[in-house]
Amino acid sequence: MMPRPCRKRMISEAPPVTFFKPSGVPLLNLRVVRLTLDEWEALRLADAEKLYQEEAARRMDISRPTFSRLIESARGKVAGALTSGAALEIEGGPVTRASKQCRKKQACATRRIREQAVNSRRWTMSKRIAITAQSEDLATQIDPRFGRAAGFLVYDMETGESSFLSNEQNLNAVQGAGVQAARHIVNEQVDALITGNIGPKAFRFLDAADVKVYLAENVSIQEALALYKKGELSLQGDANVAGHW
In Å, how far are 131, 213, 216 from 170, measured between CA atoms? Predict the structure, then answer.
């Protein structure tokens, strides 16, 4: 059976510089990390233009899961090159260049979609919400951490019933606490999360699972729920801390 050909990814522009290396180190002594053009485009859209993944995927004419894999791979390569002192080369990949007219249409459509998406998603009431909690008492303050929160209070918006999920297994985790916590609440079929802080890996995991993330601080669980019901919590488009939360 012939493998399915890889669909070409749309890029809006070529990178102005395609090779980076540590200063003062001969190239012969360096390992070269290769970043494909579609990975570079994913980085540009997500981290430079700050687009939501849905919008960025639309710009590249790919699915959101494909975009999530691209941006994860790109960030890993760049981080690896920077932390190991390797050279970074941008080349190759299954890409096609968008026309000038197409780029103009994409820019206009993105602005319109962003405004509509932010306004509509903010006021869409989720059915099941996870809230980082220190206990199951609604009067206690929300836990400002996510990956290392004491636990999660899962609240059903239709019935008003709640249950407490312990997060004890991640409290002292050296790494990966955010992703493990994200997987934990996704398994509970929640639609939204209210927390004090969220790191990049956990946010990407939740975003890929269509779990909306809202931030609240210095309020009780009960107050956070009230703010959410009034539509007064802002929908997050990305992580707000570097990690280890």
Answer: 16, 20, 21
Topology of 128-229 in CATH?
Nucleotidyltransferase; domain 5 (3.30.420)
- Domain residue ranges of the chain, discontinuous segments joined by +: 9-122, 128-229
Model pTM score: 0.52
pLDDT tens, residue order, the chain (245 aa): 545 556 789 998 889 999 999 998 888 888 999 999 999 999 999 998 888 888 899 999 999 999 999 999 999 999 999 999 999 999 999 998 876 655 555 555 555 555 555 454 444 667 899 999 999 899 999 999 999 999 999 999 989 999 999 998 877 776 788 889 999 999 899 999 999 999 988 998 898 888 999 999 899 999 999 999 888 888 888 888 876 55
